[in-house]
Amino acid sequence: RAGVVVVRAPQQHVVPGALMPLGLTLGGALRAVNILAALLAIVGWYALLRAMAFERVVALGACLVITASRTFGFSFLAYVGSDQLAFAGFPYLAWAVLAVRGRWALLLVAPAMVLIGFFFKNSLAIYMTAWILAVLTAGLVSRRPQSARGWGRLAAVALGAGAALFLIDWGYVSRGWTPMAYRAAWSTNPG
Q: Contact, 54 vs 101, CB < 8 A?
């Protein structure tokens, strides 16, 4: 019986491993993740571009360019795990930030998106933090006059995102769970 043993970052193995109890073989689970991630990615990127006020034809064109890329096509030839999860997950996480960017709810949403981003791919936590700060900063800089309340929100959200990154470091990296320390952390084999 095939199984998945996790070394390095677990997310790329947890997702297909979670599909195997449904009766899928390891290869079938990997193919399912490849296909679902590709479909979810294109839908998510289209929705994110539309949420950013890009015209429909521009958003469709961007998605067409994505689907014509070598990177997108390669995902159907090999399982690259966390890269596919990050590519599919980012637009949804980014959209969630955009949806609450002008409200204090972002204080809860931002750190949650950083932590969820970390689950998809370790480095996505950093990209999400950069996205969050860029969205907030762009909103402040475009307003005249800039308000102390807006800058206060930016500072609070930056602290929340920073706290999420600290938790990742404390709970993951500082315990030696890095690509340099190949320790099994989770397995789909029960015994």
A: no
Give the Cα separation of 191 and 189 in Å (integer).
6
Q: Could you count the other beta carbons within 10 Å of the beta carbon of residue 70?
A: 6
Q: Tell me: the pLDDT tens digits for 28-83?
A: 988 898 899 999 999 999 999 999 999 999 999 999 999 998 878 887 787 777 88
Token pair in block for residue 117: 């981003």
The maximal CA–CA distance of the chain, rounded, in angstroms, is: 64
CA nearest to 115, candidates 61, 70, 170 = 170
